[in-house]
Amino acid sequence: MNSELFNEIRALEDVNSFSKHEKLVQGIINAIDQKIISRGDMLPSVNQMIRELTYARETIVKAYKELINRGIVESKNRRGYFVSTEDTEQHLKVCLLLFAFDTFQETFYQSFRNNLGENVHLDIFFHHNNPQIFETIVRDVKGKYGMYVIAPIPQPQSVHLLEELPMNKFLMVDRYLQLKDEHSYIVQEFEESSYEAFAALAPRIKEFKEFVFLFKPSSAEPDEVLKSYKKFIKDFNINGTLKNKYEPGSIEPGKVYFTIHNLELWQMLKDTKNKGMTLGKDLGILSHNDDYVKEIIFDGITTFSIDFANMGKMAAEFVLSKKPVKLVMKNELIRRNSL
């Protein structure tokens, strides 16, 4: 197999428009296309390439790195280089790691996927705010992709894991973590923009007797939003109540309910309908993270949110251009019928 592979590479020697590393890349691609090598096959080591082709070590390493970035080859620690796909048309292999596939994250994903174009291979993973799952995924994908787009768990252990990735191929999205090296990010700002949303809604909230925030400690919910809520009810003399979850059937008139979780929102809307109450009149509901459904149901749910479609578009632009980006997106209030 190796002799046929080397023949494919040598067949490009007379192509003057190719550099040596381009001849090596194209030779391996040609060998895959002609079924000389297939997915899972081990490629010659760098030292074997040097002996057979007399190319410089840097040239061979550069070629293998390009093939890895395109997702055609993968490097397995201490075992060598292997063919990872027979789809040689793809130009880049991208790892996307998100919290979960909620509706607003689906909006981000669809925009990201659409703006990447057809010749990019995208694998999507979810860590569900579980540190063990997050660590397993990050360690498993390291070295196998040309670009990494990751929504991290905001904790110290995540920092050490992310710092093992190549920073020029890494984009942090959604939550921000400070890393020791310069890195690109497109993330949300929570604390200031949450407070501004609450403050803008203060006259409406005061029309009700209580402002209930459903917040789960030690969850994926941003602590900054909780800080803003506590400051708001103090500054505006609001009767506020914290609850760690919504109990089905417990919805009451005269209150404003604020939840970050969509499953709680759907249950509250169901209970509102079942009890014959009118949203925006008998009670108010405020939600975080906007999506198309919230524009429509119950004549619209008031939210504060970033534009996830725009975040996805900008993330795709970074992946394609590799131009460094440092952007903090503020959540904006979107007023609708529910409050």
From TrEMBL:
CDD domains: WHTH_GntR
KW Endoplasmic reticulum (keyword) present: no
Keyword terms, alphabetized: DNA-binding, Transcription, Transcription regulation
Top-rank taxon: Bacteria
InterPro entries to which the protein is assigned, alphabetical: Peripla_BP_I (IPR028082), Tscrpt_reg_HTH_GntR (IPR000524), WH-like_DNA-bd_sf (IPR036388), WH_DNA-bd_sf (IPR036390)
Domain HTH gntR-type: 18-86
GO molecular function: DNA binding; DNA-binding transcription factor activity
Pfam family, one: GntR
Matches recorded under PANTHER family: GNTR-FAMILY TRANSCRIPTIONAL REGULATOR, HTH-TYPE TRANSCRIPTIONAL REPRESSOR YTRA
Protein name as it appears in the record: GntR family transcriptional regulator
Species in which this protein is naturally found: Pararcticibacter amylolyticus
